[in-house]
Design brief:
Length: about 475
């Protein structure tokens, strides 16, 4: 069979451009293919580069240490000291994530695609990817339509899927025990965001903070998700919400409403008293957009036969914050490095590529199953319980530890004394303790992520059973 490339990277977003850079730097003959032309590199949909565009500095430091890449203005738009999660009653806020930046996404995307080209990858634009070419269960390439809508086929030794949430490659893999082809609707957030110019009516750092990213937890405004206001340069903000479908349905049923995501975003913007004289900033036709992001743990394996996946195609966004830029950076680099080395050593079997799974877990992935558990717990709380919990259950330090997937010791006795009244609060607190125990269990399971492919099945069965059990106990209950 004709082999055109050592490595094909499908999708030139963050994960893809970095995977192609790392593979090409290792001497692999690499193709980076995307439906976008260079001018709109990394654009997710017709609606633009739909994203909150906030990323922690730690992820940019990772890129510096692995690939020697440095970012600066204009792709780094605004520096932020951290991210505040604010309670529905606006009385408590917890700082997490640490220093970071909001990005000028179109500029960042072009920069990293240029980097891939400089490293030696070929960038093929205007090509739609429709599915994998299979030889039995082995993935040998991709097919799709070129810019003239003509069918094309490209062959490779290793395929890296970086097509994002709705990947046409992952969804057309052979049925297998390693990678789920579909993402459950319960694990998706429907999101939308506007980039807006505005005047500050007055200062209230709970609504707009030029030095911090703000997250508003509120099950009425953003059921099963949250709203955000992230600062950008020149009196602009990135403002949006994410909602979970069943939470939205339940909230609407209980309130007798039929609000859509679009309506809720407009209401959220309207709700904010500080951002006055708002105007959509449609630079790069990127002013308003809607898309989905997954909030589950990453796929339990990121490798299947000659296929590897990175970024949103593998559901890598953080289950609590939905931050997927950092994991896309980490996984893109690791996938490209490991694919490049596999080509160099001529060891491209699934057993050899398995080290991508263990490496990704070591660097980022081992906490995400625990965070998925915490996300499900949060979605089971109404606004009153979130208010009460942020006031009485958790200290800001404990909340920060939880958000990193590090388990704080939450003392039952000490906290029970603080529970002033109400059986609902006591139950929610007991549930929090149960949740943290489950999180610990998942963290321990992920510490034992199988080093070899042959040990995957029993480990995987345990993870799936734990998740199922927890999700059945904690249905979404926003109102
Ligand atoms: C509204 C919203 C807000 C978010 N906010 C944040 C945030 O503030 N911080 C954060 O860290 N994360 C955030 N995320 C998540 C983040 O945007 C993603 O995790 C990140 O973009 C993933 O990068 P990726 O390279 O994996 O995929 P993508 O950015 O989706 O890139 C996929 C690429 O593949 C191309 N492609 C897709 N399908 C095809 C096809 N069939 N043929 C050819 N090309 C194709 C696309 O055009 C694109 O170039 C947000 C997501 C949304 C939706």
């Amino acid at each position: 069979m004709e082999t055109n490339y050592d490595v094909i990277v499908a999708g030139a977003g963050i994960a893809g451009a970095l995977a192609a850079t790392a593979a090409a730097q290792r001497g692999a003959k690499t193709l980076l293919i995307d439906r976008n032309y260079f001018e709109t590199a990394g654009k997710k949909t017709n609606w633009g580069w739909v994203c909150g565009d906030a990323v922690a500095k730690a992820h940019l430091d990772f890129l510096h240490s692995e690939l020697g890449i440095d970012f600066d203005s204009p792709e780094l738009d605004t520096k932020v000291d951290g991210v505040y999660a604010i309670s529905p009653d606006m009385k408590n806020k917890f700082l997490f994530e640490g220093e970071g930046y909001t990005l000028d996404r179109p500029k960042l995307a072009k920069k990293i695609v240029n980097m891939a080209k400089k490293a030696g990858a070929e960038y093929l634009e205007g090509h739609e990817v429709e599915g994998p070419i299979l030889d039995g269960n082995k993935i040998t390439g991709i097919f799709g339509k070129d810019e003239k809508k003509q069918e094309y086929k490209k062959y490779c030794k290793i395929l890296i899927d970086c097509l994002g949430t709705a990947s046409t490659l992952r969804r057309k893999l052979p049925v297998n025990d390693y990678i789920s082809r579909e993402v459950s609707v319960d694990d998706l957030e429907s999101t939308g965001r506007y980039i807006m110019k505005f005047d500050s009516k007055y200062d209230d750092l709970n609504y707009y903070d030029p030095k911090n990213a703000l997250i508003h937890l509120n099950q009425v405004l953003a059921p099963g998700g949250y709203g955000w206001v992230f600062p950008k340069s020149n009196h602009r903000i990135n403002v949006g919400i994410g909602v979970e479908k069943h939470s939205l349905d339940r909230r609407n049923a209980k309130l007798g409403k039929s609000d859509s995501l679009h309506k809720l975003i407009d209401e959220y913007v309207e709700w904010n008293p500080v951002i006055a004289n708002r105007q959509v900033d449609d630079t790069d036709s990127n002013g308003k957009g809607y898309w989905s992001v997954s909030v589950r743990r990453q796929q339990d394996s990121l490798v299947y036969m000659n296929y590897m996946g990175a970024g949103d195609s593998m559901s890598m966004a953080n289950p609590i914050s939905a931050g997927g830029i950092g994991p896309a950076m980490v996984s893109g680099v690791l996938a490209g490095e490991i694919a490049g080395e596999a080509i160099r050593e001529n060891k491209i079997s699934m057993e050899h590529l398995w080290k991508y799974n263990t490496k990704y877990n070591e660097v980022y992935g081992s906490k995400t199953a625990a965070l998925e558990i915490f996300r499900v717990y949060l979605q089971s709380l109404n606004n009153d319980l979130i208010n009460y919990g942020m006031e009485h259950f958790l200290t800001p330090k404990e909340a920060e530890e939880l958000s990193y997937g590090r388990m704080p010791e939450i003392s039952m006795a000490g906290k029970f004394q603080k529970l002033l009244s109400g059986i609902a609060n006591i139950n929610a607190f007991k549930n929090l303790l149960y949740t943290t125990q489950k999180m610990k269990l998942l963290i321990d399971l992920y510490k034992k992520y199988p080093k070899e492919m042959k040990d995957f099945a029993p480990w995987h069965n345990k993870v799936v059973a734990e998740m199922k059990d927890f999700k059945e106990k904690f249905p979404a209950n926003p109102i």
